[in-house]
């Protein structure tokens, strides 16, 4: 690396801090005009659970139902103990903390000397990527934090941790299909058994608390899942002009082919270390998801950190693309192009690294010739 000129040493911090402050203003402005309708659904479910009522009678703005597993509502019970304004502030703080911790922990995993200034640049560029998430009050950064914790559990063979976490990842099961396959492939039978026991325990507890929930949830899904209006989908069929619905059942053959392709690619690069491999699995899960929206784009963050952490700021353009593509797409269907770009770069790097590893092993006489 060439030594930096005095002008660069001054210009880069000024640029990063200016961008960071500008995006903080953008963040606060967006938060001030958002209606947080998805957050109200989560909070309503938690409030209903606290009151001993059915969580599946909760209907928020725009007739949005609570159609998540019961334990998703339990996650929000601590927030339901506060007035809505305080609960919303806490929710924003938890989401922001999850984003900061994910970027910090992963960047330093790949590059222990990763600079705070570079983290600030990434966090500043994450804001435009996340504006729709803020607008509706979705929980993708909280979900991302839980997923990265599960990845960390897989890295360290923490079967109990992953098993206890996994039912909460099923809040959005359609976003983690290939990821799930390789998470448990990495960990083995013990993690599967712990996860099944954990899930069964939650099912039993949910049935004790609300004996008819397992009848009410399918009814809500059936009544609401066929809707097509609202936020634009970010899937390949929608990009190609196909019709979609809330359940993602409008283009099943397409979805199955994408999932199969993702699984084959992940199997081909299975020699990757656990953290980058599962990060790529998460990104490819978003690429092949039967239903996704622009507010799900933060699930690309782990693989974007992997792509850039060791070559920053030379590869900061990937984060710039992450900020610009959703904005230029108007947070519409074309935002799927960011998922395509990031996954393509991730697969390219994964193949290059696994080929390099096979070459090193062959030089030492390890493995097949």
Output the keywords.
mainly alpha, 369 residues, globular, 18 helices, 69% helix
Content-based structural category: mainly alpha
Tally the structural domains.
1
Could you report the average pLDDT, rounded to the nearest whole number? 90
Estimated helix fraction = 55-70%
Largest sheet: none
Please give the alpha-carbon distance between the first and last residues.
36 Å
Ranges where pLDDT stays below 50 over 5 or more residues in a row are: none
Strand content: under 5%
Structural Rg: 21 Å
Q: Count of DSSP helices?
A: 18
Q: How do the helices and strands follow one another from N- to C-terminus?
A: HHHHHHHHHHHHHHHHHH
Please explain how this structure is put together:
With 369 residues, the protein is an all-alpha fold. The protein has one domain (12-363). 69% of the residues lie in helices and 0% in strands. It has 18 helices and no strands. The chain is globular and about 65 Å long.
Write the layout of secondary structure elements.
Elements: H1 6-33, H2 37-50, H3 70-75, H4 77-80, H5 84-110, H6 116-129, H7 131-136, H8 140-155, H9 159-169, H10 177-187, H11 189-209, H12 213-224, H13 236-239, H14 252-268, H15 274-287, H16 301-308, H17 317-328, H18 336-363
